[in-house]
Amino acid sequence: MSAEEVEILFKNVTKVQRTLGVNISITKLTEKVFRALDALLIERMKDSVAKSMKPLHELLQRYDANQDGFLEYSEVETMLLECQLAFKPQMFQRISTQIFDIAKVKKSNKVAVQTLKFFLASDSQQSSVVTSSH
Description:
The chain is mainly alpha-helical. It contains seven helices and two strands. The longest helix has 26 residues. The radius of gyration is 18 Å and the shape is elongated. It starts with a helix and ends with a helix.
């Protein structure tokens, strides 16, 4: 990618008019774009769960059928669909591997309910999630 293409991409992503004195590598720019994408995906999930008219803890309890404290990725996807949120397979894969795998649960194909609470709780619920996990 040429320096001119990087500059055009940077302007489009950051919405700035001038890049005078700005020096950014394509790797760093790409990293920033993907962080922004992750944040956008989380916000969309939060909004959908909040609009579902069901408390987050009830949704999670309902989909944690065996009550082991984990949801399989397919259960998370079904829960999000119930909340009127559907992602293309590539976006759901990104959510699964980039966002939820903080606890390194890839091998079990599950995500901890506490992790989901952390990411999906509304701002008013965040303090109770943090407090209850200690």
